[in-house]
Amino acid sequence: AGATLVLDPAFSVGPVRRRTFGAFVEHLGRCVYTGIHDPGHPTADEDGFRGDVIDLTRELGVSTVRYPGGNFVSGYRWEDGIGPVDRRPARLDLAWHSTEPNTVGVDEFMRWAKKAGVEPMMAVNLGTRGVQEALDLLEYCNIASGTAWSDLRRANGTEDPHGVRMWCLGNEMDGPWQIGHKTAEEYGRLATETARAMRMVDPGLELVACGSSSTSMPTFGEWERIVLTEAYEVVDLISAHAYYWEEDGDLASFLASAVNMDRFIDDVVATADAVRAARKLDKRIHISFDEWNVWYLNASPSQAPKDDWPVAPPLLEDHYSVADAVVVGGLLIALLRHTDRVHSASLAQLVNVIAPIMTEPGGRVWRQTTFHPFALTSRHAAGQVLRVKLDSPTHETARFGETPLVDAVATHDADSGEVVVFAVNRHTTEPVTVEVDVRAFGALGVTEALTLSSDDPYARASADDDTSRSSPLEWCTGSA
Ligand code: AHR
Predict the structure, then answer these.
(1) Is 185 annotated in the active site?
(2) Domain termination site, one of 380, 412, 431
(3) Total number of domains in the chain
(4) pLDDT in tens, 199-208
(5) pLDDT, tens digit, for every residue of 6-28?
(6) What is the DSSP string of 175-197?
(7) Ligand 1 pocket: which of 30, 67, 71 to mutate (most atoms <8 Å of CB)?
């Protein structure tokens, strides 16, 4: 038996948010250098940005881009990356055991963001630094003129303020690997004071407090409760980070990774709402799922050799399969169905580092398998996200127990009348039929049906062949 899906335009979870389709550019490996920035490349523009990467960023349908880290930001001095490039210092990047040349800094990134048509989302360093440095960066970025930092930005060639709305208050401060790692109490205080001061500059900023680095952190849950109890009034969002990979050949559990993401979101929402009740406040805190992806943590080097401090070494260059693309599709479905509480998300990362876009230094650019579900979902999700009634056959998975084979969500755009169904088949070998009941919409015709599939779940794309493997789906009923 197949799965059935009942859709009704009355059952909306909330709007499709463009910010669900964010990504992430960190000073890590080849993400910045030879990723977005490669001055010797034939498509490079006057600022050294690769035109082919900008084109694919647009094709991917990316909305926001988080910058400059990640673990990198917790040791970063943003002032190193401004002014004449030949006078910028090279620094040790302790997070990735690399040398940071500071050729690209905040002004260059903002120029790139404009060219790529994305909204920048900045992170401040709350590892080795604090309130003052965050305020300085905010002043440099967002004040028009007439102050030391804003006039320095203008002197450095950027007349208009960058106007950054979304700011992350540090990165993964719950993780013992983080430079300047803190307890929840310590971080809660620092995040609160930083947010309070940043709001004195501009009350309209959207501020993200660090949540947990994964559900498996020993502090998960308590971290959110303690941080939000302290920071509730001065932040808007709390972050969530999650990476998934196939463990010990258990493909069935891996394909069902969204079960973990669903639960992660539900648990953070419950914790935030519990703080709201205890503090007797009206406002709700939303989630910024600002790092999510498939990442085979130990498959490719995550640090340069200890006796070396290279510039832009190849790190975290995972090579994705069709199964990985199914998981990415499933995770996008989970993010969309929580659109009432997930107000922002970032695929980590954009180029070369656990990324949908890969480059050869000075050479070709290509799309990984995971590019396609992201691009298709970003392109087609519009209007309202619908709460679907899904009846699916189930199977047993080692990690999540009995799990539905099919997972799905739908969107409905009242203006165009378009209904779009996003679905994944989590069976490891067999196809599955899905019947979609759209009677509640009246007369609808089928415009297009695409599937991303392969007989070999481990098939991978390459620079020689990055075709989408999307083929028209066999359509049973034709119209409704
Ligand atoms: O995205 C790679 C790394 O994963 C980020 O730097 C860090 O925040 C997370 O642990």
Answers:
(1) no
(2) 380
(3) 2
(4) 999 999 999 9
(5) 999 999 999 999 999 999 999 99
(6) -TTSTT---HHHHHHHHHHHHHH
(7) 71
